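STRUCTURE:
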C-alpha cells in the first residue's frame, strides 16, 4: 500500500475524534464567543465592563491569587509525598496510593462540607488549637480565602502527587548513587539531579492544578462566601441569577484564553528544553 493510501486510512480513523472535538468543544466555544459580542447588543462592551470594573478585577485577582497559592502549596506538600511513594516498599506504596485515590473518588460536595465542619469557629481545628494553648480565640477559617485555599489544596493534592510519582519512579536510582559517589551531598543530589529530572512532573502537576483551580466552583462557593467570589462563581451568577449570557460568556472566554495561554507557555518552554 502506498504512503498516500495509508494516510487516507489513518485519517478515516481520526474522523470520529475530530467530529467529537468540533461538536463538543469548537462549536460551544464559538457560540460563547458570538454571545459575548452580540448580547445584549453587538460590540465589545461586555469585555470593557468586565475588565474596566474594580469589582470584577477584584474577582479576577481573587481567582488567580488562590489558584497560584493552591498550586504552590500543593507542590510543596505533594512532592515529598510523591517521592516517599516512589521509594517506599511496594506493599506500603500501594496502600497509601489507594488511600489517596479513594479520597478522589469521594463525593466533592461531601468533602467540602466536611471541611466546613472542621474549619468553623467551633470546629475540631479551632478547638484543638485552643486546647493546646496556641491561640486564645477561634481563627476565622471559613467564609474567606483562607478556607478556600485549605479546601482546594486538599482536593488538588492527588493531581500533583500522581504525575510526580510517575516521573520520580522513572528516574534511575543509579544516577543519584553516581552523584553521591562523585562527592555530591544529599542537598546537591536533590537540587542538581532529582529536582531537574522531575521538572516535567512538576510542570504537569502545577499546570493541571492551576487550571482546575481557576475554574473551580463548589469549594469556593461554600468555603469562601459571596464576599470572596471567584471567577467560576461570577459566571454562574451571570447565567443563573442575572440571565446575562453576554457577560457570562465574556467571563468564561477570558478564563479559557488564560488557560490556553498558560498551556502554550508550558509547551514552548519544555520544547525549548528538549531541543537543547
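SEQUENCE:
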Amino acid at each position: 500500500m502506498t504512503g498516500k493510501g495509508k494516510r487516507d486510512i489513518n485519517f478515516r480513523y481520526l474522523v470520529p475524534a475530530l467530529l467529537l472535538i468540533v461538536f463538543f468543544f469548537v462549536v460551544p466555544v464559538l457560540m460563547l464567543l458570538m454571545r459575548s459580542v452580540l448580547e445584549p447588543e453587538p460590540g465589545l462592551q461586555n469585555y470593557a465592563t468586565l475588565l474596566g470594573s474594580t469589582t470584577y478585577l477584584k474577582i479576577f485577582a481573587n481567582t488567580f491569587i488562590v489558584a497560584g497559592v493552591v498550586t504552590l502549596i500543593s507542590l510543596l506538600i505533594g512532592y515529598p509525598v510523591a517521592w516517599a511513594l516512589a521509594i517506599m516498599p511496594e506493599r506500603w506504596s500501594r496502600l497509601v496510593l489507594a488511600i489517596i485515590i479513594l479520597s478522589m473518588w469521594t463525593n466533592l460536595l461531601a468533602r467540602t462540607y466536611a471541611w466546613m465542619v472542621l474549619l468553623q469557629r467551633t470546629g475540631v481545628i479551632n478547638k484543638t488549637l485552643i486546647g493546646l494553648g496556641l491561640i486564645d480565640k477561634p481563627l476565622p477559617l471559613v467564609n474567606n480565602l483562607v478556607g478556600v485555599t485549605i479546601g482546594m489544596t486538599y482536593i488538588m493534592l492527588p493531581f500533583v502527587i500522581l504525575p510526580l510519582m510517575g516521573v520520580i519512579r522513572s528516574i534511575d536510582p543509579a544516577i543519584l548513587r553516581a552523584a553521591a559517589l562523585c562527592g555530591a551531598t544529599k542537598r546537591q543530589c536533590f537540587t542538581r539531579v532529582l529536582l531537574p529530572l522531575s521538572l516535567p512532573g512538576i510542570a504537569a502537576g502545577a499546570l493541571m492544578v492551576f487550571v482546575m483551580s481557576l475554574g473551580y466552583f463548589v469549594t469556593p462557593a461554600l468555603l469562601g462566601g459571596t464576599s470572596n467570589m471567584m471567577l467560576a462563581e461570577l459566571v454562574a451568577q451571570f447565567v443563573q441569577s442575572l440571565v446575562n449570557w453576554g457577560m457570562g460568556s465574556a467571563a468564561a472566554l477570558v478564563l479559557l484564553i488564560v488557560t490556553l495561554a498558560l498551556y502554550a507557555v508550558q509547551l514552548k518552554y519544555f520544547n525549548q528544553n528538549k531541543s537543547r
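REMARK: The chain has a mean pLDDT of 82.
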